Amino acid sequence: MAGDGITAGRQRSRTNGGNGAAAGGLRVERVWTTEGVHPYDEVEWERRDVVMTNWRDGSINFEQRGVEYPSFWSVNAANIVTTKYFRGAVGTPDREWSLKQLIDRVVQTYRKAGEDFGYFATPGDAELFDHELTWMLLHQVFSFNSPVWFNVGTKSPQQVSACFILSVDDSMDSILDWYKEEGLIFKGGSGSGVNLSRIRSSKELLSSGGTASGPVSFMRGADASAGTIKSGGATRRAAKMVILDVDHPDIEEFVTTKAREEDKIRALRDAGFDMDLGGADIVSVQYQNANNSVRVSDEFMRAVEEGTDFALRGRLDGEVIETIDARKLFTGIAKAAWECADPGLQYDDTINDWHTNPETGRITASNPCSEYMSLDDSSCNLASLNLMKFLKADGGFEVEKFVKSVEFIITAMDISICFADFPTEKIGITTRAYRQLGIGYANLGALLMASGLPYDSEGGRSVAAAITSLMTGTAYRRSAELAGVVGAYDGYARNAEGHQRVMRKHAAANDEVRPLGAVATEILREATRQWQTGNKIGAKNGWRNAQASVLAPTGTIGLMMDCDTTGIEPDLALVKFKKLVGGGSMQIVNQTVPRALRSIGYPEEQVEAIVEHIAEHGNVVDAPGLKPEHYAIFDCAMGDRVIAPIGHVRMMAAVQPFISGAISKTVNMPETATVEEIEDIHFQGWKLGLKALAIYRDNCKVGQPLSAGKGNKAAAAEEKVAEETKAVEKIIEKVIEYRPIRKRLPKKRPSETVSFSVGGAEGYLTASSYPDDGLGEVFLKMSKQGSTLAGVMDAFSVAISIGLQYGVPLETFVSKFTNMRFEPAGMTDDPDVRMASSVMDYIFRRLALDFLDYDTRAELGIFTAKERLAQAQAEAAADAAAVDMTGMAASAPVSAPAGSSSVTVAEVKAAAAPEKAAPATVGSSTELLEIKTGHASDAPLCFTCGTKMRRAGSCYVCEGCGSTSGCS
């Protein structure tokens, strides 16, 4: 089908009149490269060793030495590309060992396909296209999505798409096909979404007279399948989206599905089961491998607005089965999202109002991260630009280079469809007929900060809207030019009117943008020209692609491009975690901070003072010389100054009219957010014209770290526990006289307080002694950990203290409570107890070390660091052969500190901000941020290397190894 369209385009030999495209092929202009010099010869190359360890236990899970990268590529980028994208078995001659091989494998495949399918006017144009694309990839100007790097140029199927949409009909054959198709997509390293609304509800009858199972029941089988493939996949986790229309009779069951499972997780956890992320028992919980979304219509949203009823309709005949209160259902959706972050909302009428192919069919579903929205049984390949590469030193924007770069990328993406393989025949047919593309960008948050613009500001939204409009306008203009060379997409003829209508809508939205500042004005002026030119060319030629742009999470590829921020997201935090060549790590202030300070006029000495303050405190509050009106420029997604939820929604609304698809982004809300506030965010998303919206309330997941704050409820709980405990004490003293006599501590007694951290959870242990030094009282405070835990800790402290005062030996408590296993667990900040299997395990080991004699502790297997060292030295003296090994084990640090011999002078000088050795227990920027702010994040731990991941759109990405929870 695709071949027929391309041949027809060549036979027509039309001249489109656009820049760079003529009958018979494209003429390519030089933009980034230097004539007569290959891109590889312009940079300095170096060899590195890539050794990836599991942060939790230090075991090596990947090792490849002598890999070749440009000197300016970060350690993180090189590590991720080596482990994720180099092909061939490690340790064999077939294994790729240089970035040159990876780029050549992909670019040369694209060039050959471009020549074979008639994209270029001459061989010289093809070669220049090759060099320009190579230069851009080498210098991290953009990146293709991960499946391109996984598959293109290899012996594997040439799957280039990251995003898939499937379809399911109301038949068992179709449902089983859905299971199979999802599995094939997951196997290829991609994700898929599906709308289950065609399946009859559990309130409808089968032809046999029985009652249908309903879509929620079939979700169980698909969830189990995804969980299995997720566990065994070599490239990434399974990622999937399940959608149900708001008028489906089973909508209420669907809405509460994951919230009910969250209640189950709590109950099983409290019963002693391992329900942590990746825990042994979490697999017993259902529906955890998919994002859920409700498709809401304008009719439903108006019913919510007006407080009227809403009809739920049968799937076979459309007859009304039940009438419900629209506001009650809307509140139920918000309540479920409050409890477990699911479901999200997709605004169906808005989505289909911007649909370029309405004659072919409606858009019913999306990919897992909600950015790709198109026809059923279709796919989309993605690529993202690094916006910081276009920021000039004077604060301007490289408009011309940006335009030319979009041309190159769109051309390459369209070429890939010519040779791509697809997991099913249906998807292949649809994708070749409609040729959906998804160009996008990363580093918007860094660009705005470096430009001195707050993310949540009219100025910031103005620049973001202008850039997005320019990107999509240029992409569609190039698509129209390509249609003149190789033909419009096969489905264009029947959808010409609808496609042109949407192009006019984009252009009209562009005209409504109010530019603020010279930079936004310049970008918007060029965007206007691109829409006008592109629509004029498209009216003659049609368009090569049914859609052109999305805003994806850019998780792994964002790290590959050394981006500070992913997709449309703001900066995560002002301090970050940096790995160094040769090993070791350090924390630095983000490079965008000093650039932002200079852009708004601060002199160098003030810049240094402010950056030093940020390095120390992790925020700009009270930074010396920084004006309070400039604080908002440095607001981030996490930390002490965070962007308000509505600020995220407004940014999405500013760029949505210039995106063919939608935006992968989660609106983070504080733990204190109410159901009513979530309802308001959902409602504002509809009013502001978004296509999809998902929220995440901090700490709503059981498997996440505990809350960082403790409010008035905690104090009330503590007071109540204390009063009840006093009452119990009086009863014990008066009634149970046969029990041992309680020996109370004197009013004035010696005590010591120890602060501790176990797996990132912080607390304080205060131990009071009798005058003869016997332990008699314990108080435990979990610092800022939430009312429930604080109350439990207080009650537990009282119980232990009473037991000690009635004569229960401390060693009895130690023997009972050490080695208990539950979260939080992991590394501690205590040199004598480096690992703890739980907070209880740590507390009683610490008490044993402080209050029990050596012999008693030795029987319990509890020793100080000095005692363990003495034992090791004694063993070494007894066995000379073990001396070297023992010395190495004792001296090898978890990570080489900054400034060690493994850190080059160039590495240290490269950072513009103050640097200091990263804490030994830190493995990512998220963990560093937790230490700086004292607030726990809700990010999961990476299944591959154990570090805490960071959010990328509506997904998560691991800074350590590049693993993602999404599909782009």
Automatic annotation (TrEMBL):
<feature type="region of interest" description="Disordered">
    <location>
        <begin position="1"/>
        <end position="23"/>
    </location>
</feature>
<protein>
    <recommendedName>
        <fullName>Vitamin B12-dependent ribonucleotide reductase</fullName>
        <ecNumber>1.17.4.1</ecNumber>
    </recommendedName>
</protein>
<feature type="domain" description="TSCPD">
    <location>
        <begin position="746"/>
        <end position="849"/>
    </location>
</feature>
<keyword id="KW-0170">Cobalt</keyword>
<comment type="similarity">
    <text>Belongs to the ribonucleoside diphosphate reductase class-2 family.</text>
</comment>
<dbReference type="InterPro" id="IPR050862">
    <property type="entry name" value="RdRp_reductase_class-2"/>
</dbReference>
<feature type="domain" description="Ribonucleotide reductase class II vitamin B12-dependent N-terminal">
    <location>
        <begin position="50"/>
        <end position="140"/>
    </location>
</feature>
<feature type="domain" description="Ribonucleotide reductase large subunit C-terminal">
    <location>
        <begin position="161"/>
        <end position="696"/>
    </location>
</feature>
<keyword id="KW-0547">Nucleotide-binding</keyword>
<dbReference type="InterPro" id="IPR000788">
    <property type="entry name" value="RNR_lg_C"/>
</dbReference>
<dbReference type="Pfam" id="PF08471">
    <property type="entry name" value="Ribonuc_red_2_N"/>
</dbReference>
<keyword id="KW-0560">Oxidoreductase</keyword>
<keyword id="KW-0237">DNA synthesis</keyword>
<comment type="function">
    <text>Catalyzes the reduction of ribonucleotides to deoxyribonucleotides. May function to provide a pool of deoxyribonucleotide precursors for DNA repair during oxygen limitation and/or for immediate growth after restoration of oxygen.</text>
</comment>
<dbReference type="Pfam" id="PF02867">
    <property type="entry name" value="Ribonuc_red_lgC"/>
</dbReference>
<keyword id="KW-0846">Cobalamin</keyword>
<dbReference type="GO" id="GO:0004748">
    <property type="term" value="F:ribonucleoside-diphosphate reductase activity, thioredoxin disulfide as acceptor"/>
</dbReference>
<dbReference type="InterPro" id="IPR024434">
    <property type="entry name" value="TSCPD_dom"/>
</dbReference>
<dbReference type="InterPro" id="IPR013678">
    <property type="entry name" value="RNR_2_N"/>
</dbReference>
<dbReference type="Pfam" id="PF12637">
    <property type="entry name" value="TSCPD"/>
</dbReference>
<keyword id="KW-1015">Disulfide bond</keyword>
<dbReference type="InterPro" id="IPR013344">
    <property type="entry name" value="RNR_NrdJ/NrdZ"/>
</dbReference>
